[in-house]
Amino acid sequence: MTDAQDRRVVALVSGSHFVNHAYIVMVAPLVTVLAARFDVSIAAIGLAIGVQNVVILALQLPMGYVSDAYSRTLVLGISLVVGTAGAALTALSTSYAWLLVAQVILGIGVAGHHPAHYPLLAAVSSAENRGRAYSTHAFGGAVGLAAPFAAVAATTALGLSWRVALGVVTVLGGAYTAYCLLSFRSIDDDVTKPGLAERPDERPTVASVPGRMRALFRTLTASPGILGLTLLAFLTSTAAWTIRTYTPNLLAAGYGLPDGTASALTSAMLVVGAGLILLGGTLTDRAGAGPVVIVGYALLTVVAALLSTLVLPTLALGVVLLFSGSISLSRPARSTLADLLSARADLGKNFALVTIGISLGGAIAPPLFGYLIETAGLARSFGAVAALGALSLALGWWIVRDAAFDISSTPMPSDD
């Protein structure tokens, strides 16, 4: 491997993260619009987003298994190609049933992006730059989260249909898919297909799958650090999905802002969150993962509590809103902890397990909080997000305390 190839892999994977995250949240800025278009409730649109995340959840470990045992780029290709097909079907939806089917297909696609991305990053990073590699990847994903909100804000200002906004996201994603997969053809096999390169005489067969899956579950349940990170990912994902899905509603219904302005401010919030990810990566490399995890979740708790008051003046609202993405500060640190607690041969599976926590939060948060907003109101619903932040802070402190012992008492895996 070369430094140039390492940097290229990080850049390509980060671009893929942008595309996959843009696909994942493409319905979020249109919750109110689609509810009116298909004559359903806000909670029903939240359910469609949740269905996508249920599919992602169900496919995490199988995708991680294929990534570790066969090919990381095979899983990457499935993620981008099928995800683009699901995004196109979402943009073309003419009924609520169609939207549900489109979200299922989209979920099948993007299910593979974390099981492919994280092992690829681990293969080309070292102890000196691991936090920055993960933060670059997370930055791409965070900007991807902002992209649909920006597209909706722009098309709304121009008086164009919501289909145009989703079509733009899909076309850009399709173009990148072709570029990324062609570019990976020149990357070394020891980065893209370690399962075949390292275990040529133990290649999995269909008959061996049940036994291997049982062994996988035994390994996972014996890893309290990874299980703790999975629960932490669930709590923070639930909070993050609520913020990114319902902040436009909070701003419009709670603070009286126009819909277009609400989408634009939400996009700005996510862009600032992307910048905090880069800061988090640098801080992780310099100060360690533990302090960054604690600070990130403390900020999440405070910001969500302030937003839930619904009485912030305009200037204070703008400042607090920009830091609603503070949860992003801790993402490179959480990924670094998962990397350090994983054997190299289990990277895809362990990151898949952590992603199960992320996907479960994404499956539960949109319909649950859509229902809470309609029944309990915006203030109480965002107050519940602050409570999730407090739980995340407590769990994060416990994991960091125990992980510090586990990492210090276990030989670091080779970066070769």
Describe the structure.
With 416 residues, the protein is mainly α. The protein has a single domain, classed as Growth Hormone, Chain: A. The chain is built from 18 helices and no strands. α3 packs antiparallel against α17 (347-376), α13 runs antiparallel to α14 and α13 (259-287) packs across α16. The chain starts with a helix and ends in an 8-residue tail after the last helix. 55% of the residues are buried.
Short summary:
This protein has 416 residues and is mostly helical. It has helices at 3-24, 31-37, 42-69, 72-91, 96-110, 113-123, 130-157, 162-183, 189-192, 194-198, 209-221, 224-254, 259-287, 289-307, 314-322, 331-340, 347-376, 378-408. The protein has one domain (3-192, 215-408): Growth Hormone, Chain: A (Up-down Bundle).
